[in-house]
Write a structure and sequence with these properties.
single chain; alpha+beta; three-stranded antiparallel β-sheet; extended
Length: about 190
């Protein structure tokens, strides 16, 4: 095994000390702050069942749809206006969403396995509406911005671990924004 350069050793020691300080500050145990487990958060006894990298594409799409349960009667699409530099999300409707469109006049496009597959292939950027019938939700996602973003995520992890909301699946930092996603073991 190659020897680790001194500068790298020093940086590792500094980061470990910072992690320990943050754990003490948040009153978290190492178990509460542990990274997420394996890629598949849960075993689905019903279809699609166990999924791995050798599974057929349609089974992977079904797994993604089950993991991120969302309304199937509508989904959102991303828009970016190069003229104004603004962007956002609008419901996917036949003929495209128009400013001032009345809800009653919109022919919403359903979320189908084909739409999910296109999203997973990077062909389209979609958003989901996670609130299900009966006011149930299967997953949560949150963005935390600013210099204290990682502390906010850590406090949410601590809260999650004491309330039993579910397992934190990932923590990401992208363009200065921190994202967290939690999937409960049952719908709540």
């Amino acid at each position: 095994m190659a020897e680790i350069p001194a500068v790298v050793e020093a940086e590792l020691a500094r980061l470990r000390a910072e992690n320990a300080r943050l754990l003490r500050l948040l009153k978290m145990t190492p178990e509460q702050a542990a990274p997420p487990g394996p890629g598949q958060a849960g075993f689905f006894e019903a279809p699609p069942g166990l999924v791995d990298d050798g599974s057929p594409p349609e089974v992977k799409v079904a797994f993604f749809g089950a993991l991120f349960a969302a309304r199937t009667d509508v989904y959102a699409i991303r828009y970016d206006n190069p003229r104004t530099g603004r962007g956002g999300w609008v419901p996917a409707v036949r003929g495209g969403w128009r400013k001032g469109m009345r809800h009653e006049d919109a022919d919403f496009l359903p979320l189908t396995p084909g739409v999910l597959a296109a999203h997973l292939k990077g062909e389209v950027h979609i958003g989901l509406y996670p609130l299900l019938d009966g006011d149930r939700c299967w997953w949560l996602a949150a963005d935390f911005d600013g210099s204290a973003a990682m502390l906010e995520v850590a406090s949410k992890i601590r809260c999650k671990s004491t309330t039993g909301v579910g397992s934190l699946q990932d923590r990401q930092v992208f363009e200065g924004r921190t994202h967290a996603r939690a999937c409960p073991s049952i719908a709540y």
